[in-house]
Amino acid sequence: MNNLDRIGFVWRGDWSIEEHQNRKLPGNIQETYQYLEKKEYYHLHCRLADYYGSMQILTHLGFPSRSNGPELAQKIFGLINHHYFDVWYKPRSDEAKEMRKAKGNDGFRWYEMLSSTMWLCLMHDQKKLLSDIADWTESWFEPEWLPIPVDPLWAKTYISIASSFRTKPLKGLEEMEDAIRKSRKKAPKLLLAAWDAARDGDQQKFEKTLLESIKHFISTLPSEQIHFFEFIAFGQSTVLAAARRLGMKLPDYGPEIMAYVPTSESIGLPGLSNT
Q: From CA 215, how far away is CA 198, in angstroms rounded?
């Protein structure tokens, strides 16, 4: 039994899952890079991170990729670095507005790209890039409009995670985290509680709170299956990978629980340095 069977997702794509992994996704990546040669758009950067992340998730679900080698990884992480730290957009363009970090800029976008790139950096042990992106974040960030809205407090848990990998303290971190802890919203509170335990170095509490967070995630899964991404606990996977950077050990929750939570090992990479 593979992880796709364990999470109970029924694949209904026009392509078989093997073809999707080994033909469709690599083809989509190649096509998107061809678009970028003509003009760069924010959504194309997000799309590449999404396609590459999909390849990792399908590997976790039991369908390894023949195209997921070090050359592709180097190319993707080069693009991520380019996205954040190069001026690839024209002044006063839509893309410039999307990238401009300024309070009151209602066109600023960050969550969609940050949530996927942080996860990828942690999975692939990209320490320098992770630290640079963490330094880029601010506690006042509010998530952009997305077709499936994201809870602002949930989005801010990613800023909390990133804060531990910064080269300098994050202004407003305590106030931001207090707002999450005092909220009635269970998902961000549980995730932050697991992250708090990891930062405190409490392995037992970390395992308990992370498991509570994962089980809450599973309890909220939609009855109608649309995309396999919906069945992946990205927030919990991100916290787990970040916690292992801080010295936490990989919990033994068993395969039925871990089917929802990708690790570096489950996507075919070496285990993280602190395990």
A: 18
Report whether 165 contacts 198 (CB < 8 A).
no
**Could you tell me the two tokens for 148?**
């499936």
Which helix (DSSP H) or strand (DSSP E) does residue 143 occupy? none
Give the tokens for residue 85.
């730290």
Per-residue pLDDT of 199-229, as tens digits, reads 999 999 999 999 999 999 999 998 877 788 8
Query: From the CB of residue 30, how many other CB atoms can be counted at a distance below 10 Å?
Result: 11
- Residue 241: partners with Cβ closer than 8 Å, 6 or more residues away: 119, 122, 123, 263, 264, 272
Phi, psi of 186 (to 5 degrees): -70, -40
CA distance 167 to 92: 31
Q: How far apart are CA 101 and CA 133, in angstroms?
A: 13
**Can you give the pLDDT at residue 195?**
98
The parent domain of residue 207 ranges over 3-7+15-258
pLDDT at 96 over 50: yes
Residue 271 belongs to a domain? no
- Rounded to two decimals, the pTM is 0.95
Does 241 fall in a domain?
yes
What's the number of domains the chain is made of? 1
Nearest to 238 by CA among 73, 111, 118: 118
Cα dihedral 123/267/250/132 (nearest 10): 0
Element (H, E) at 113: helix 111-123
HSE value, Cβ hemisphere, 13 Å, CA-based, for 121 = 27
The answer to whether position 243 is within a domain reads yes
Kindly state whether residue 264 falls inside one of the protein's structural domains. Answer: no
